Predict the structure.
Amino acid sequence: MKRYVGAVDQGTTSTRFIIFDHDGNIVGVDQKEHRQIFAKPGWVEHDPMEIWGNTAAVIQGALAKYMISGDELAAVGVTNQRETSVVWDKNSGRPFYNAIVWQCTRTDAICKELIKDGGQDRFRAKTGLPIATYFSAPKIRWILDNVPAAKEAALKGDAMFGTMDTWIIWNLTGGADGGSHVTDVTNASRTMLMDISTLKWDSQLLETFQIPDSVLPKIVPSSDSRTWGTTKKEGPLGAEVPLCGDLGDQQAALFGQTCFDKGEAKNTYGTGCFLLLNSGNTPVQSKHGLITTLGYQIGDQKPIYALEGSIAMAGALVQWVRDNLEMIRSAPEIEALASAVADNGDIYCVPAFSGLFAPYWRSDARGVIVGLTRYANKNHIARATLEATAYQTKDIVDAMNLDSGVDLTTLKVDGGMVQNNLLMQFQSDILNVPVIRPKVAETTALGAAYAAGLAVGFWKSTDDLKQNWSIHSIWKPNMEESKRLKYYAGWKKAVKRTLNWIEEDKPDRAD
């Protein structure tokens, strides 16, 4: 009997396998972190083979710990860190180079060259995206320019490109022995190579980036009853299970939060922070620094689009405080440290470690801690660290209100940082709207599971999914308007201090 659906959640810092029942409850989970490789300032890489090994391990771990058989799974979905890019040999299955992570800024020189001819919004009408180091196309170009074996294989038709969903799906469905080379519309929309109106790879963009179309995966719906293959009996699931759900992590959270109606929004607090608003069947071009992206597509139905605000550093900033400053031993400790003071002591931390993402899109920015006096202590720095995520979210909400023409009235939240009550209360205060956390906070994995389960009829419709959604906590605003305005004015002043730090970059090359 098929009682469960599984989801691989391949994130920026770890990989998890989560098993859900029909009510959307978690019945099994396993997780493994992977290395963050910082070869040079601004460079961020992952080892794709380590990630694939971890994926197999967490699948086996979750099944074994909870005594669940792979045969009990009706389907498997995949969700992933989105723009992170890997190029590998289709015959051996070996990557030519480490995966270049979405946070990596090494492609800044490539982006600046592209911007010279048409500006930062040169491709926005077609892709919904500004030219930025964030997206996949410049990363692929960098690998082909700097790794001779990758370029040679690409010209021969022996190279494959994928974001991490593609890499995981290919390996789960057989790898070099007939694995499916696919990506869904949401991940394809993050490459800067897909036309968001036609949902096809664009020949002019491929020519501009000098990327052969033979390296690209097939674009498929996010939830597809036709499936793209099955897992192998000899693989980590030990069974042949349909693999038919695939969404980039933030779109998966939108799906898991059941934001199926136009105007509904969610914010995910993970390594980065990402706010998505369902904009319906028509793409809305942002005029205020947001991204126009694919929200999801179910089978042959019309795609759903979204407006997105992307923040590079949220939970990653807490990790930095833990690992680099060594102020705390574990991430949850920061809440107690921050709660020991009543306010931030006029300190602001702007984590522009990889430049500023939405709505600024300034790759020349770098992180600052400002307002320091002899009064300041580690508690104030801890509080400023948490508040930075809330302020960045307000930047996004303000831009989204302007683009959509409708003010946000509530914010659905998910991700690891929603366990932090101080942050959630401050988020509600600074936005002046209620913040709502669902019963199942792991909505990213849940969204991938929902997409896969819908495809095989485990859930009959999106109405079934809405019935599963329920509230766990609500935080309501409790801050005087004068204080809210004062705090945010301080944040905007701090943001200005980050700009123009990087004046001129020389092209980065592989060693």
Notes: The mean pLDDT is 93. The first strand starts at residue 4 and ends at 10. The first helix runs from residue 48 to 65. The radius of gyration is 22 Å.
